[in-house]
Amino acid sequence: MTEETNIPAENGDTGAGPTHSGFVALIGATNAGKSTLVNRLVGAKVSIVSHKVQTTRAIVRGIAIHNNAQIVFMDTPGIFKPRRRLDRAMVTTAWGGAKDADFIMFLIDSERGLKGDAETILEGLKEVHQPKILVLNKVDRVKPEDLLKLTAAVNEVVKFERTFMISALNGSGCEDVMDYLSAALPEGPWYYPEDQISDLPMRQLAAEITREKLFLRLHQELPYSSHVETEKWEERKDGSVRIEQVIYVERDSQKKIALGKNGDAIKAISTASRKELSEILEQTVHLFLFVKVRENWGDDPARFREMGLDFPTS
After folding, report:
1. Cα separation, 258 vs 55, whole angstroms
2. Residues 137/107, Cβ–Cβ less than 8 Å
3. Backbone angles phi and psi of 217, in degrees to 5
4. What mean pLDDT do residues 186-200 have?
5. Is 163 strand, coil or helix?
6. Which residues face 232 on adjacent strands?
7. Who wins on pLDDT, 66 or 49?
8. Strand order in the sheet with 285-293
């Protein structure tokens, strides 16, 4: 049988039946694989990924077209027990995203199961009334009988419309998720142009990519309290772009870590970020990184606005 490909028109009408559209919020514990899954389902990098917990700080929307549907995936911050003001803002944002969505996708790391934050989130889902699907990630690392037990245990607490077993890393099972959502989302016109894959401004995406490289390079060495802002973006006559970014840390000792011995760390971060930005922008990128100390930036309302978060007053 020959597979038929539908090419959507500008208004989202493929001419092959009604179009569907809607928002799907991914929620889960930190490091469950949400960002990896969003990138996989969208087919492009829209959310940064690292092994450091709580990498995603605000809602990132990745936009995918599947069959006649436009699916807007909302990659939310991992939900965990908050300790600081930034933590509280992230958790509030995650639950807010869930309640604004047409569908909830609860992602569980199959290896960890219902431990710690995952169990807390499941209890919280009792108060969320949108239709929900359960997605078990990293299933290639778990015995089938254990996956069935986990599925039964989760559905005893909250009833899910469907359960999917996937690997966000290699894509196994992801097509089934897309098939289901494209049919289940409500009929309606598309929210975004056909060729748009994210609603994140390019300046902010560039800052996020540099933050990812920062985490990947330093990981355990640099504390969680670091932040990247794009301060200058200049399109040049030769077709290249000059980007200046600032990495904010809270102490001089953290600045030394970010710079590295003889500037080795900052050079490696800049090279990795510049390479990826050049591929995304399809143009030559001249990237200049600076490291500045800004004490207690985690209590600065302006930094929260820059990250797309509401500033908690208490």
Report:
1. 17
2. yes
3. -75, -45
4. 89
5. strand
6. 244
7. 66
8. 227-235, 241-249, 285-293
Contact 165, 136 (CB under 8 A): yes
* Nearby residues of 51 by Cβ (< 8 Å), 6 or more positions away: 31, 215, 216, 219
The pLDDT assigned to 313 comes to: 57
Helix (H, G, I), strand (E, B) or coil at 3: coil
The CA-to-CA distance between both ends of the chain, in Å, stands at 60
How many residues in total does the chain contain? 314
> For the residues of 123-150, what is the DSSP string, one character each?
HHGGG--S-EEEEEE-GGGS-HHHHHHH
Mean local confidence (pLDDT), 76-101: 57
Give which of 14, 138, 125, 25 is closest to 75, Cα–Cα: 25
What does residue 60 show for φ and ψ, rounded to 5 degrees? -110, 125
Q: What is the pLDDT of residue 79?
A: 47
Interstrand relation of 20-28 and 285-293 (parallel, antiparallel or unpaired): unpaired
Strands 60-66 vs 69-75: parallel, antiparallel or unpaired: antiparallel
Rounded to whole angstroms, the Cα distance separating 204 from 215 reads 17
d(CA 217, CA 42): 26
DSSP letters along 20-85, please?
EEEEEEEEESTTSSHHHHHHHHHTS--S---SSTT---S-EEEEEEETTEEEEEEEPPPP----SH
Residue 25's DSSP bridge partners are 74, 104
Structure-block tokens of residue 85? 């003001």
In the prediction, which pLDDT does 51 show? 47
Q: What is the CB-side half-sphere exposure of residue 260 using CA atoms within 13 A?
A: 11
Q: Does an H or E element contain 172, and which?
A: none
Neighbours of 96 (CB within 10 A): 14
Tokens standing for residue 288:
């200049």
Q: Which of 47, 15, 17 is nearest to 33 (CA)?
A: 47
73 and 52 Cβ atoms separated by less than 8 Å: no
CA distance 80 to 117: 6
Q: Copy the structure tokens of residue 313.
A: 């007053």
